[in-house]
Amino acid sequence: MTEKERVNQILALLDEHYTREYKCYLNHENAWQLLIAVILSAQCTDARVNIVTEKLFRKYDSLEKFAGADLKELEQDIHSTGFYHNKAKNIIACAKRLIEEYGGEVPSSIEDLTSLAGVGRKTANVIRGNIYNEPSIVVDTHVKRISRKLGFVKSEEPEKIEYELMEILPKDHWILYNIQIITHGRGICPARNPQCGSCFLNHLCPAAEVSASEKDKNKSVQEEK
């Protein structure tokens, strides 16, 4: 089997098990809400962010309210998401710039998005993929870890991983891959206890082969004792 055939088989199985439905795990009603939610999601679970934004977006129901927010008050509002000092400062600065330079609209280009306070390539690609349907690869912790296990990438740096995945994944899977891998990482392949034995990708995953061989080796050692 060629590497391209292996990649295509993995993608076909991901499609079969997780469908090709686009799904965003962060609750939002518009582009600027998603942008703020992604800023809050740094080093925080989507579930926690959704709990916080349920009240946050009712209290600050416009970009203008975020732009004019009291820093200390906003810090308290988002305290449970962690790193709240920087997040609050960035959210206020980002909202002000969106109003002053972009007429209250969230831009679509990677250059404009990453020029905003608190917005890196991951956040920018979430916006591009979910709001503007631009083929984009989002490299979060699940994508980084599982892509390395699958042998798709070798890099440790998210931006390099993004470019490596662009080389091997067809564009119609750039957005889907992140959605599917998040689901896979939360269910079958969590970092602490991956369920390789029941994984539908185990026959195509180098890491699963290593895990199986290590288990067999350990079993043999135990039997010899």
Outline the structure in words.
With 225 residues, this protein is mainly alpha-helical. It has a domain at 31-130: Hypothetical protein, domain 2 (Endonuclease III, domain 1, Orthogonal Bundle), CATH 1.10.340.30. The protein is built from 12 helices and no strands. Helix 2 packs antiparallel against helix 6 (84-102). The protein starts with a helix and ends with a helix.
Short description:
It catalyses: 2'-deoxyribonucleotide-(2'-deoxyribose 5'-phosphate)-2'-deoxyribonucleotide-DNA = a 3'-end 2'-deoxyribonucleotide-(2,3-dehydro-2,3-deoxyribose 5'-phosphate)-DNA + a 5'-end 5'-phospho-2'-deoxyribonucleoside-DNA + H(+). This protein is mainly α and 225 residues long. It is built from 12 helices and no strands.
Structural features:
single chain, Endonuclease III, domain 1, DNA-binding, nuclease, DNA damage, metal-binding, 4 iron, 4 sulfur cluster binding
Write the layout of secondary structure elements.
Blueprint lengths: L2 H16 L12 H10 L5 H14 L3 H5 L3 H7 L6 H19 L7 H5 L6 H10 L10 H9 L8 H11 L5 H13 L19 H19 L1
Helix pairs in contact: 1-11, 2-6, 2-8, 5-6
Q: Which stretches are poorly predicted, pLDDT < 50 over at least 5 residues?
A: 216-225
Classify the secondary structure makeup into a structural class: mainly alpha
- How many strands in all? 0
- Name of the top-level CATH class of the domain at 31-130: Mainly Alpha
Cα end-to-end separation: 39 Å
Q: Outline, from the CA principal axes?
A: elongated
Which bin fits the share of residues in helices? 55-70%
Kindly report the CATH topology of the domain at 31-130: Endonuclease III, domain 1
* Largest sheet descriptor: none
Number of helices: 12
**Mean pLDDT, nearest integer?**
92
Helix/strand order, N-terminal first: HHHHHHHHHHHH
Strand content: under 5%
**Computed Rg:** 20 Å
